[in-house]
Structure formats: C-alpha cells, structure tokens
Task: inverse folding
C-alpha cells in the first residue's frame, strides 16, 4: 500500500499554485489536509503526476467576521472550526456538525477546503454549506469567481471546481435573529460516514418557520436541499402536515443502496430525521412522537 | 473449593513476602512498549534485505493460463519475480487435515498458486524488490492471463449436485461432517410441553490485528540455516513446519518472535504467503521481508464464524430443558487451513452447545463445506460464540414461550455447583464449574430486579431497553487432545527454565509467547513469588526457538494455566537448589531456611542470613569455598502438560443492558457485566482487561463486523472504512467479577481467561435486543445486528 511515484511542489503563493495547476491540469492534485487524498494515493486509486502542496499558503488560513459575513479560509482545519468562538456564535450549525466529522486525528489535519473540494456526498460539511447559504470562493486562471454552495456540488466527488482552480475560502451569512438549527446523522459508529444525515437552518417566529433549509446528506449524489421545507413555512406545522411532508420527502429523495443501508432504509432514516429535526427546531415533542416514519 | 469474592486476593501457601500471584502489578514490558522501544518485525532492517509483494488474484476462482512478467522485471530495483511453479521447487505443498477429525479432507495447497486460484486474494506471483514501493510498481506491470471459473460462494448450495466441485479429486465440496446423538432426543422432544426452533446466522468476520502479519526470513547460506523473524503465537510450530516443507532439519530453522501487535488466533496458523517468504529467502539467498498491508490482511488473514445453525430446544412448563438439537453449516474457503485445520470450529460447536445445562439429550450435525472465499480457521473463542448464541438464544426463546424469566429458566437447568466432576452429553469432562455461584454474583452486580423494574417503567415511555443473559463454558488449557492426537506437531506441553545469575537475579526462559496478554508479566509474577525474588530482578525471555524450552506457545487460553504451572514447578526446583547450597554455606539445613526479599532468611523468624547476590557470588566465583562434594545447580527446567483432563473448562455468565431505537434500528449498548471463573487469578487486572477486550470483540461480532462477499466471491469491504471494528465510542462500561474454582490438576490452579469475554458477549447482546423487541413480536437470530436488520424485523423498511 505505497503510493506510486509522484512529483511534489510546495506552492509558495496562490499564484504559484495556480500556475502549477495550469501547467499540469488533471495530472496534478492539490494537497491540503491529505485525509482523503493520501489514502486514495496509497491504495493507488489515484496516481497524480504532481502534488501541489498548499499547506504553506498563509492567505488561505484564518476565520474572520465582518459585514455580517463569516469568512473561512480554505486551509482552516476542522479542529479550528470546532474551537472557533466566531463559528460557535455565528454559524452554530457548523460548530455542531464538525464534531461529527471523523475523529480528532483526522480533524487535526483535514481542512474545510479539502473537504468541500472532495465533495463526498456522505460528508457533513457540504450539506452545512448548502443549509447556510454559503458562497464558495474559487480562483483560477481567469481570476476569482463566487459560487453558491447549492450550485457547487454537482455529483459524487464532483464539483463546479475545475482542475485549474483553487478553492480559496467560503463565506457564510451570520446567523440572524430567531435563527435555529438542527444537525443529526445516523452513523454505525461515531465518526463514520453517515447512512443518512440532516443539516437544517431555519428562522422560527412565533412557532412557525419563516425560512427553512433542510439539507439531507448521504441520501443522494450530493447534498439535497429538500423541497418539502418550503411547504412548511408561515404556519404551525400539524402532525398531519408533517406526515404529508414526510411522504413527499420519500418521493423527492433518490438514495442508493450500499453495504450500510438499502435505499429504502436511507429514505426511512431521512424521514426520521425530518420528524426529529422539525420537532427540535420548533420545540414540539408532539411532532417527534406523533410520526412513525 | 470455590471462593467467591469481589476482589479475590490470594491463595494460601503461595502467599509469601514476594507474592505477586493474585496481585495487580504493572507488566514488565510496559516501559518498552510505551516508550516506543518495542521491536516488531516491520521495524527490522537487515543488510541486502528484499521486500516481497504478492500479486493477488482479482478472481475468486480462475485458471492461470499464463504470467507475463517481462515488463515488470525491467523495473529498476526489482530483484526477482517468482511464480508458484518456480517456488514449488523449493517448498512442498501441504494438506490441512488431522486424523482425529474423522473424514476431514482437503486439497494440496501451494505457497503460491500454480495453475489455479481459488479465492480472491490468493497469491499468484511474488515480486521481490529493494523496497515495497518498487515492488508494488512492478506488480502493476505483471500480466496474468486468467480464465475465470464459476465461483462457489453460498454455503447453502455448496453441496448441491449442480454446484461445481472446487477440488474434483475430493469428489464433493464437503470438507467435514460430524454427527452426535446422545440420550433419547426424539423421546425427549415428544415429551416436551414446548418445542422452539430457530435459524441462527453468524456473519463471517476476522481478527483485525493492529500489527498485520509480518515476516522477515533470512536464509544464511554459510550456516545452511534459516532464521524466521515473525509475529507468531507458536514459534516451535512454525519451526517444525518451515523445516518440513523446505526439506530442512528443525535444527536448521530458528524462529524469533519479538513484540507482536495483537494475534487473537490470526497468527497461530501457517499462511501460504509466509511459507512463500521463507522459500524466497532460500531461493534468493538473502533476507526477505513480507508485511501484509491492510487490504491483504482482510483478504488473507483467516476469517472465522460464518455459520448457519438451525437449532431447537424442548422444555417443560416447569422450565426444565428436555433436549437440544442443532444442525450447523459453515463454509471455510477453498482449503482447510494448515496445520490446525478448519474443522475445529464446527467441531467445537457440536461439543459446546447445551454445555452449561443438565439435559443429557442432545443431537447435533455439523457440516463444513468448501467455498471460493478466503480461508477460515480458528479465531479467538473458536466455536464458543456460535454454540453460546445458539444455546442461549434457544433458552431465551423457550423462556419467552412458557412465560418464564430468563434467569429463572437458567437456574432450573444449569449444572449444580456440587455436581462435579461430571461430563456433558458430547463427552466433555468438567472438573469443577460454578454456574450458580456466577449467576448469583451477576444478579448482585447488575441489580437484576431493579433493572427489570427500570425496563418496565421506560417501556411505558416508549423507550425500549433489553436485558440479555448468556451462560457459557470455555475450553482452556488444552492437552494433546486438541491437535497432537490428530498428528499435528503442535506441542501441548510448555517448558520453563529458570536460573539464578551471578548477581542473584533470575533469568527465565519460557516457551509461551506474548502478544499483549501479559505472558511476560504472569511468568515473572509466578517465578518471583515462588523464589522470593522481587519481580524487577526477574527477566523473562520468550519467543525464540534457539533460546527457550520447547513448547506450544500462547493460544487457546493456555499460557497461564500450562506455561504458568511449568514456571511454578521450575522455580520450585530452583528454590530447593538455592536453599541446598545456602544450607551448605550457612551450615544450616534447607528446611530451616527460606528465601524472601532477594535474601536467604531463617524460616522460623525471617531474619536475614545472606543476600542472594552473595550466594551467587560464592557459587559462581568461589566454589572452592563450598564444602567438598557440593555442586550447586542454579538452573532448573520443568515442563508441564495437563494429563488428567483434556481441557480445563471454565465457566461464566454475561449480561447486556442496551437500548433499541425502534425508529432507526440502532442499538446502543448501555452496560455489560461478566462473571467468570478461571480458577486462580495471577494478575486480576490482566484478567479483567483480557475479559473486557474479549467482550469488545464479541460486540464487534454482535453489532458491527462482517466480511461482505458478493455472489462472485469478491470481498467488498476490505478496508478499515468499510469493515466496522468496534470502537471505543460505542462501548459501554464492562464490569467484571470473578468466582474462583482452581483446577486441582496444577499447583497453580489457573485456568485460561483469554476467550471468556468473546464466548458470551454476542449471545448476551442478541438476547438483550430480542428482549427489547419483545413487545413488537420481533425476533432476530442473526448477527451482526445491523440497523437494517432491526428495522426489517420491525417491518419498518
């Protein structure tokens, strides 16, 4: 289990990294935390000609807050997010989700940029980005572009990012007044990829949703922003409405079978998450208890 | 005599000033391991060492039509590329059968496949290069022309006439069958008030050692001698087999086993790739290193379990069990493993079902079939988890049917504590067990009645918790009855040599081995205790066929009971010899003297007479001052093997308390209790941790671990991400209690404890899940108990 031989370059600046990516294109891979790339290389699932190590690029680090926006540099490690008071205050959904990402050893090295660029559909962070209406900032030969998280993830391990671009940062709007969030996932063991998960961000006013983003993960080829959320706005949700939403969610999702769970099991778990999520967001135990998914 | 106490201290005549037996003392190898100074095979670098990578079959069953290694040979750094045919000139094939397992058959297995591969992962060529990375590069360039054959993967159809026979020369795919019929089974079932039956299904899983299998083989042409550095549980067995198949005398093979990162039975077998590594060293006349990577480990480390066992039980309304019957089927891969064979687990299932209970009526059939999957063999608690899950699952089903508490039905059927010695229907002889004392202790530890009340209260709130009980027996301290009588050259005796060195310290060489159990510690504890020498002055040497007595090693829960007794007896002889010479020096008599705190003392008042250091100085450097005719003998060797009982059976009972989320199918383990009786406890902490580790492996089987093969015989989850080992996050607190019934076959009185945890944990968990699901009418008799399985049983998906 040794990687095939590869060339290695430690990028000295974002410009330098982009130059290398421009030259090598698909034959290069960006090394950030290496938590997905290195195992894949050791298993010889990928054998890049060049590794562009961006670990030294200070401009990609740091978490800052200004103008109602939380900016997270691509090289911020999971542990940085976990410990950041800014994230805890302004993006508590992310703070909660990050604790579910793998294990401390992996969180100490893995980065948010690497995670998002890798785009594992069972990963927590892409779902959080969609729920939080994040903007993904990327830079390439043609300069910088900003992509809404909803449009960034395009398939299993596929994103809008080209081989010649680098993910620079993500920007999240600060959680506003009356915002509420819910995060839960079902994984066989703590730290495993989920069989189904839900990252939800909402605004709740007088017991009703005025905004609700329910993003399911591990139930499709990318994070799924459930359409049923929009039907639950502006009024008190009844158990009957939840049942209707649950059934609609089942139709909306198209999960795959795998060793951990069949498609029907994933669909079922998503419905359980919907009931538990809505119940928690609204503080309504009756919804949780009243629905047998 | 059976002693029950929450914290057994120690025993009678061994309770001396330097008594370490029964005490929690730190293991002597802790510092070395904690400071990273352990020496594992993969740490070793020898001059001119080559690294071997095995090119492995991607097919479960295929003919090899040709191997083209021309391009690979051209890779800079490649030393040799060797096929099975080339290697067969160096090493002979083997057949994994034992004569006492009547009818067991298997086919000849080569170190590297020659014409045909029989499982995905079988080696087809060896690539030897200056580094593992170079060898892997070259391996990608080797072209093998395969002709894919139909793979036999489902054990249920392996014996059908339409299924291809994997080894045509054997006639069919049946490796072994055993039938047992004891008592009056048909009459007993006919006379039962209730008969309950079920199919129990056990997933195939494996041991997942932290350190993978690793070998450095070093053929020294000048000495005509092969040194094998290997993490193995049985160095002398490896020596014998390497010599046998390489055409050498055992004298020409030395096996050195330094630190080992976990074994669990995985490292007690002879693997084809390890045999190939020995042969490559001889062929290429240089040291060769093989370290399995994780993917290879999953594909080639022995797998275990994978049983489908139908069982039924008869009971009266009074809860008395009238009979057991089982029909067990297991698939073992394409070859019976060498030299211990792959029939032992099924054989153990037949032996052990119903073992804790009184009924004499028992019928069993076990069939072992070949498949095109990885080889299967003995893994921690061989057969016990199957037998325990079937027995205890049936007992719980019967209890539920007649409306009796699971503890009560066991109390009515467990063999009485004063009924020993006695034997099981399958002929197992029990010297002294303590089922009822263990159950009583368990009830106190877990506060059973309060827990039942809590369960009922939570049930009314929609929280579904379950209690599962599993009584078990465990085979330990095996005599020659296990392997020797079947013709295997696997020693059942162990030897220990102890000597007083020139500064009064003790060097102790033992044939048992250490893979983390604490063999080194228990040996030093026993020797120090008997000699009256402090433990830090006892150095234990193990794992070297040149430098230890001949013996079996550490497996089947035998190290403490057999190797420990040899250590005790050797130390007693040395103690006598020391006292004899002390008497001569001190003009006293041996009876008037004793040894304590590293000194000769008066037996009567304990007054110090002479430091052992001083005694050793005189003996080794001034023997001229000893009285005429006194020749001291400060080295003693003793061997031990049980003769009275083929196995020292132990017993115990486990209980699980868990919660089932009936919406998601997730099982959360809340608490777990074990009461076991391994006789004398040498180091209670080591015993407790062995039990806990064993329980955790049982949890793995119960909830997580499964080698998932597809219908074409492809192992689809050969990685640590996809094969789920139990992790600390999901583990409950595990409380361990003891009942102590020493075996009278040894002075030490110790029986084995290494497998008790694994034997009963899965049964307790499965019973607890079914207890939690009882209001839903769902019964699950399959492990691992995945959320998918639970939800399916509940009709939710």
Result:
């Amino acid at each position: 289990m040794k990687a095939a031989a590869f060339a290695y370059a430690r990028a000295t600046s974002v410009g330098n990294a982009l130059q290398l990516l421009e030259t090598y294109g698909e034959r290069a891979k960006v090394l950030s935390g290496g938590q997905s790339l290195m195992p894949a290389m050791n298993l010889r699932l990928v054998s890049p000609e060049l590794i562009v190590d961006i670990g030294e690029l200070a401009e990609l680090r740091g978490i800052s807050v200004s103008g109602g926006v939380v900016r997270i540099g691509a090289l911020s490690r999971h542990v940085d997010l976990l410990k950041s008071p800014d994230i805890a205050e302004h993006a508590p959904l992310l703070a909660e989700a990050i604790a579910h990402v793998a294990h401390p050893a992996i969180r100490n090295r893995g980065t948010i940029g690497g995670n998002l660029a890798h785009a594992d559909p069972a990963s927590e962070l892409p779902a959080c980005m969609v729920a939080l209406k994040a903007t993904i900032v990327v830079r390439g030969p043609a300069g910088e572009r900003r992509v809404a998280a909803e449009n960034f993830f395009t398939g299993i391990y596929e994103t809008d990012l080209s081989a010649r671009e680098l993910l620079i940062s993500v920007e999240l709007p600060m959680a506003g007044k009356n915002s509420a969030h819910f995060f839960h996932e079902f994984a066989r063991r703590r730290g495993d990829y989920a069989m189904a998960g839900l990252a939800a961000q909402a605004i709740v006013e007088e017991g009703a949703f005025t905004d609700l983003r329910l993003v399911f993960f591990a139930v499709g080829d990318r994070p799924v922003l459930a359409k049923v959320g929009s039907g639950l706005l502006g009024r008190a949700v009844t158990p009957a409405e939840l049942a209707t939403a649950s059934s609609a969610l089942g139709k909306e999702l198209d999960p795959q079978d795998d060793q951990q769970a069949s498609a029907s099991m994933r669909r079922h778990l998503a419905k359980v998450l919907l009931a538990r999520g809505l119940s928690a967001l609204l503080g309504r135990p009756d919804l949780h208890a009243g629905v047998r998914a | 005599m059976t002693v029950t106490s929450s914290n057994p201290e120690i025993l009678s005549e061994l309770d001396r000033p330097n008594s370490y037996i029964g005490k929690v003392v730190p293991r002597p190898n802790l510092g070395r391991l904690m400071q990273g100074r352990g020496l594992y095979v993969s740490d070793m670098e020898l001059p001119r060492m080559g690294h071997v990578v095995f090119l492995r079959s991607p097919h479960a069953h295929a003919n090899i039509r040709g191997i083209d290694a021309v391009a690979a040979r051209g890779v800079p750094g490649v030393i040799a590329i060797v096929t099975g045919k080339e290697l067969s000139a160096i090493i002979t094939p083997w057949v994994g059968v034992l004569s006492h397992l009547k009818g067991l058959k298997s086919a000849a297995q080569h170190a590297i496949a020659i014409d045909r591969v029989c499982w995905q992962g079988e080696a087809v060529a060896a690539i030897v290069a200056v580094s593992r990375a170079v060898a892997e590069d070259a391996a990608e360039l080797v072209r093998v022309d395969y002709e894919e054959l139909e793979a036999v993967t489902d054990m249920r159809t392996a014996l059908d006439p339409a299924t291809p026979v994997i080894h045509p020369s054997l006639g069919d795919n049946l490796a072994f069958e055993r039938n047992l019929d004891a008592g009056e089974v048909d009459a007993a079932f006919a006379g039962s008030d209730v008969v309950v039956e079920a199919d129990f299904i056990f997933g195939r899983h494996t041991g997942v050692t932290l350190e993978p299998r690793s070998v450095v083989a070093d053929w020294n042409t000048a000495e005509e001698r092969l040194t094998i550095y290997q993490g193995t549980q049985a160095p002398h067995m490896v020596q014998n087999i390497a010599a046998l198949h390489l055409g050498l005398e055992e004298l020409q093979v030395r096996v050195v086993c330094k630190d080992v990162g976990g074994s669990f039975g995985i490292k007690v077998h002879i693997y084809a790739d390890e045999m190939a590594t020995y042969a490559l060293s001889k062929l290429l006349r240089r040291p060769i290193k093989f370290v399995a990577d994780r993917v290879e480990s999953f594909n080639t480390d022995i797998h275990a379990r994978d049983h489908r066992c139908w069982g039924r039980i008869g009971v009266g309304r009074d809860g008395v069990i009238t009979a057991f019957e089982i029909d067990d089927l297991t698939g073992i891969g394409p070859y019976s493993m060498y030299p211990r064979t792959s029939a032992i687990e099924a054989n153990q299932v037949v032996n052990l079902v119903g073992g804790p209970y009184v009924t004499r009526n028992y019928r069993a059939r076990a069939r072992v079939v070949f498949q095109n999957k990885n080889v299967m063999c003995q893994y921690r608690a061989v057969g016990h988890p199957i037998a325990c899950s079937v027995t205890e699952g049936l007992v719980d089903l019967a209890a539920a049917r007649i409306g009796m508490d699971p503890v009560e039905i066991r109390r009515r059927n467990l063999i009485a504590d004063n009924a020993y010695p006695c034997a099981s229907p399958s002929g197992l002889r029990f010297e002294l067990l303590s089922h009822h004392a263990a159950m009583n202790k368990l009830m106190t530890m877990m506060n059973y009645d309060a827990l039942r009340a809590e369960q009922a209260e939570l049930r009314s709130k929609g929280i579904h918790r379950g209690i599962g009980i599993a009584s078990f027996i465990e085979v330990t301290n095996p005599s020659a009855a296990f392997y020797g009588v079947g013709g295997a050259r696997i020693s059942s005796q162990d030897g220990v040599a102890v000597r007083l060195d020139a500064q009064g310290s003790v060097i102790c060489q033992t044939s048992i081995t250490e893979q983390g159990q604490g063999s080194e510690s228990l040996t030093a504890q026993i020797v120090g205790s008997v000699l009256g020498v402090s433990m830090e002055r006892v150095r234990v040497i193990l794992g070297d066929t040149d430098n230890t007595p001949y013996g079996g090693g550490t497996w089947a829960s035998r190290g403490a009971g057999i190797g420990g007794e040899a250590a005790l007896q050797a130390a007693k002889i040395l103690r006598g010899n020391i006292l004899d010479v002390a008497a001569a020096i001190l003009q006293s008599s041996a009876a008037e003297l004793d040894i304590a705190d590293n000194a000769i003392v008066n037996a009567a008042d304990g007054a110090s007479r002479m430091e052992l250091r001083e005694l050793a100085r005189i003996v080794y450097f001034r023997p001229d001052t000893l009285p005429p005719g006194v020749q001291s003998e400060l080295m003693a060797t003793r061997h031990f093997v049980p003769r009275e009982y083929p196995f020292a059976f132990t017993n115990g009972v486990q209980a699980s308390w868990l919660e089932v989320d009936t919406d998601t199918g997730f099982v959360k383990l809340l608490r777990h209790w074990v009461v076991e009786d391994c006789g004398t406890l040498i180091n209670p902490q080591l015993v407790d941790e062995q039990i806990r580790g064993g329980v955790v492996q049982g949890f793995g089987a119960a909830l997580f671990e499964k080698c998932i093969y597809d219908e074409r015989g492809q192992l689809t989850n050969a990685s640590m991400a996809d094969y789920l080992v139990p992790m600390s996050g999901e583990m409950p607190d595990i409380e361990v209690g003891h009942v102590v019934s020493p075996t009278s076959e040894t002075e030490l009185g110790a029986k084995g404890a290494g497998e008790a945890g694994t034997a009963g944990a899965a049964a307790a968990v499965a019973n607890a899940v079914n207890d939690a699901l009882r209001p839903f009418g769902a019964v699950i008799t399959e492990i691992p108990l995945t959320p998918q399985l639970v939800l399916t049983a509940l009709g939710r998906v």
Remarks:
- The longest strand of chain B covers residues 464-476.
